[in-house]
Amino acid sequence: MLKAIFIDYTGTMVKEDEPYTRELIAYFMAHSNLKSPGEILKVVWSKVKEIESESHGDSFEGVDVRTDKILEYCRENCGLRGDFKYMHEVWSKIWVHAPLYEDVKPFFERAKLPIYVLTNDDLCYVEESMRLKGLKPAGIISAETAKACKPDPAIFKKALEVAGVSESEVIHIGDSLTSDVEPAVKLGITPIYLSRGKKAELQGVRVIGSLDELEV
């Protein structure tokens, strides 16, 4: 019997293509050797995942430190210049102010089970985001809480501990195969893959196009 819902934050609850992201990309284009949004996202996202994978246990670093490392990498390798404090501030606004997808609030309002948010962002930022958006999850399990970033299983194990449930008593909803579906499957948690705007089929995994399709 299901007792709880785990849900990813960025890309699942909040939009990645939003005003502050576009502002940051425009600044990169004007102040670096990276001259297209696609090129910037490829370089930055690759470095994000690399640094997140290295941030674990005693070596864990919060999202602010990880962000500064990415900016420094881009300075050294991509000719990034300009106001680094400004870039960091814009980046931090993304974590708090990225708008919800339209189906998220109704999902929270009708869900009969407690919802726990899983995120690689720091707790203070996601707590502020939830406050501003009027959402009240049962808990927020951040990377800093688990001292590991998704897809590391530690963050899922910490969420099970916080929620007080076993692997068979929870579902995990997310928009990433590598960060959501695969680690959930490895731990025995039932994944639900959210694929907005495009059709997808995964063997043995439920795929939805909107949270409106879920009744839990």
What profile does the largest beta sheet have? 6 strands, parallel
How many runs of DSSP E, i.e. beta strands?
6
The figure for the number of domains is 2
How large, in whole angstroms, is the Cα Rg?
A: 17 Å
Instruction: Please report which band the strand proportion falls in: under 5%, 5-15%, 15-25%, 25-35%, 35-45% or over 45%.
Output: 5-15%
Order of helices and strands: EHHHHHEHEHHEHEE
Number of helices: 9
Q: Could you give the distance between the termini? A: 11 Å
Task: Give me the CATH superfamily of the largest domain.
Answer: HAD superfamily/HAD-like
Q: Helicity range of the residues?
A: 40-55%
Strand order within the widest beta sheet: 3-2-1-4-5-6
| Unreliable stretches covering 5 or more consecutive residues | none
Q: Which fold name fills CATH's third level, the topology of the largest domain? A: Rossmann fold
Provide the residue-averaged pLDDT. Answer: 95
Shape: globular
CATH class of the largest domain: Alpha Beta
